[in-house]
Amino acid sequence: MSVKPVVPRALASRDVDQAIEHYLDEGGERIGLGFIDALEKAYRHIARHPASGSPRYAQELDLPGLRVWPLKRYPHLVFYVERDDHIDVWRVLHSQRDLPAWMGEPES
User: Fold this and answer.
1) Which of 77, 52, 82 is nearest to 66 (CA)?
2) Spatial contact of 75 and 99, defined as CB atoms under 8 Å apart
3) Please, what is the average pLDDT of the chain?
4) I want to staple 32 with a disulfide (CB 3.0 to 4.6 A). Which of 21, 24, 44, 88 is the partner?
5) Which of 19, 91, 80, 84 is closest to 54 using CA atoms?
């Protein structure tokens, strides 16, 4: 089994920074660190098993190859595409957001 590096795009990194800030502000250090731990576990999983993510949003958003993996204990989804040499993480979004609108947001 090969492990591909997980490479977050700028928007995904921004999403993560905002989520961490939110959890630290609202829930404290334990909750914020828990989010980081859940995200790292999700990244490790998709690095080893990229095809295990759901292709549901690929069809809804007309983005071939797009997959999504949920974080455990946190209502966030990791949106990614498997490339030949890495995992391209597009976004890390709260599951209650308007996902089509957020996924269509241009890269800054």
Assistant:
1) 82
2) no
3) 91
4) 24
5) 80
Q: Which structure tokens are listed for 37? A: 């731990």
Which segments within 1-108 are labelled E, that is strand?
6-8, 66-70, 76-82, 87-94
**pTM (2 decimals)?**
0.90
What is the distance between the alpha carbons of residues 39 and 33, in angstroms, rounded to a whole number?
Answer: 10
The DSSP result for 25-50, as a single string, is HHH-HHHHHHHHHHHHHHHHHHHH-G
Mean pLDDT (whole number) for 70-92:
96
Name the β-bridge partners of 93.
Answer: 77
Report whether pLDDT(108) > 70: no
* Whole-number pLDDT of residue 1: 67
Residues 6 or more apart whose Cβ sits within 8 Å of residue 22: none
* Torsion, Cα of 91, 67, 69, 36 (10° steps): -30
Burial 22-36 (b: 16+ CB within 10 A, else e): ebeeeeeeebbebbe
What is the per-residue pLDDT for 61? Answer: 82
